[in-house]
Design brief:
The chain is mainly α. The chain contains 27 helices and 11 strands.
Amino acid sequence: MKHMNSEVKEERTSNKNRIDLFLVPIVLIAAFLNLFKIWTDEYANAYYTAAVKSMLQSFHNFFYASFDPGGYVTIDKPPVVFWIQTISAKIFGFHGWSVILPQALAGIGSVLLLYVLVKRTFGVWAGRLAALAMALTPIVPAVSRTNNIDSMLVFTLLVATWMLFRAVRTAKFGWVLAAFAMIGVAFNIKMLQAYMVLPAFYVFYVVATKITWKKKIAFLTTATALMLAVSVSWAVVVDSTSADKRPYMGSSQTNSVLELAFGYNGINRLTGNTSVTGSGHKQPAQTEQQTASSETKQTSNSSADSSQSSNQRKSSSSQKMQAPGGGNQNGMFNTGNPGPFRLFQKGLSDQISWLLPFVIFSIVGLFAGVKFKGPYTTKQKESLFWLAWLLPVAVFFSIAGFFHQYYLIMLAPPIAAFAGAGAVALWSMYKQHNGWKSWLLPGGILTTAALQVYIMSPYVSSIGVAPIAGVGALGVILALVLAVRKQRKNSLTNYLGAAAMVVLLAMPAYWAMTPIIYGGNSMLPSAGPDSSSGMGGPPSTAANSKQSGFNGMQPPGSSSGNSSSNGGQMPGGSSNNGQMQPPSGSSNSGQMQMPGGSSNNSQMPNSSSSKSSSSKRKSGGMNAEVNQKLLNYLTKNNTGEKYLFATTDSTSAAPYIIKTGKPVMAMGGFSGSDPILTVSKLKAMIKKGEVKYFYLSGMGKGGQSDVITWIKDNSKEIPSSKWQSTSSSAQQGPSGNGTLYEITLK
């Protein structure tokens, strides 16, 4: 107790100290990377932005996180972050930047929290370096600059970590409860992903607290029970509410939050079985034609022409995803092949792994001489916490069947903590000539520089040879000089150590800036010279930027110019055999195409391409552009119907919700595969005068083929001349071949 009391007094004393002036530029760097130019992203992730627009309209929509103003279906995530985004939009007005702002601030907050967590035990320089490493980890600002929820998830888990550390220092059970309750809040941000840190929390509390085993078990059991109660609180309320009094739970197959949490957003992420058809038959996530992948559908582009020969289709279907530099990768979304070295593969390494070799050397140094039975120092205990966070999460991403690059932000805190704490520890061992441990610093510098050269090598056409050669040469030289000067103590050695850290952080810093330099993708955020693609694909070039990506999409109702056979679409029309393929006749055959309709550029279609450089970026990853002629027709002919129109999925619905704030029905939910609607329910809605117009583009038929067939058999087709855009700038897109139908039943 005396030791704990002294720590409390020390904390109170440290709180009276002035602001760390070295921290100020680090925070400013984080603020720049997270905030600069977020105001150019007009729609952000349009799927979530549409939900915020809907949630602003009523408490009912707000509480359930309804995707549409009509309260037909929810989004596929819990509501906590979207509550915060809605409050932000209420305060600052509804804009792309106002829904991004909470995540950007969370990214900055995570940098500050990591500084506080590391500084107390490992020293002020460890805290500074950890904060800087967190700020410069490329995937951190890439995600924080969007309205995706992962940045807020990490911030919440770091708040829980601060509470846990305080619980151990003060020996107060209340802080333990608060820490685990905060994980419960994080569960309501991104469900089971929040539980990834539980091994670290349990291990640290057991090792670090000096109480009896009986109390440890009792305290942890109680705290876990509270965590579970907080975790399922919203889910229980929603699932207990009559289905006819709330929206359908989007992306679930049984209209249940708990099924969504432990299935689609839970175990299926590990197994890869995230796709479910309306019949309930699961399909492996490796098939790119799946219907329920939350992000597959919205980052896609039509990929097969109706005149394509069978040989061409076979050739295209057999293509593998191309990693940067052209290497074949079998994983979805360029996440590589499962295995122990997956985090070092192309597509993942440049998002998170820049400092991993140095972290490994740091772990060796921090745990050198530790005995299994203890006793452990405070540094060793907290190092164990970060290790217990790092390893399980790294293992998950090494074997998981389905995830996206931006999920890797979960690895950023432990990597940054070890980078900061390890740098100080290894430097101390080096200066003290501590036997074999003194070689860890130059060894870590050399291997880390080598990995960074490997990471950058596929991007030589984008960044040039100089940065790659510079990092490699300086890394080798500094490591060798430090090795040679091990026995010398002077200021030059200190400068060499500082220079080595600058070299190792230089390219992560550049990579962290790429969403600002090259543009970001709010649907599938990633960092790198290809950051606008959101896919970690081949580096973008000025030559193809105007002809690829979302400039190759068009809003519902735009004239397509030629027909398509639905190649690359979701089930109910895919001919891709689970593989990505370029669009027939495209000059950008190197661009990776997603099934369902868009390629990989963040720039949304613009009716005036000459103004695209000055207009706001509509990087919603969807058809985030409204066909005004279609909107005018639907508005003029609405005779009091609740829904402006109905469509198969959220892709076509979101931009119209954002633009008008009016209800648009995504009949099959996000991807079109949710079994929400039946023919009898649809008949009842039409008879009540709730909906009469249906826009069908051949997408998202999984789970609603009977409904679509009935619509076509019982409707009047509206001539395209009345509603279809004839803009000469329109290009082939997923909605260009759609048809507008009208149904009135008496």
